[in-house]
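Appendix B. Raw example, untouched.
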Amino acid sequence: MILQNDEKKRGWFAPKGSGYGVRPQTWQGWLLVLIPTAIVLIVAAMVH
């Protein structure tokens, strides 16, 4: 027997309300944005 979840699965990103692109809508999406940003800031601080 397979149990199905009635919740609608949301994607990690959703279209923006105006303009082009997407925005994070789940914690996984935010994590995918914040980790590379933190890496860039750390490398920039080390190089400076």
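End of appendix B.
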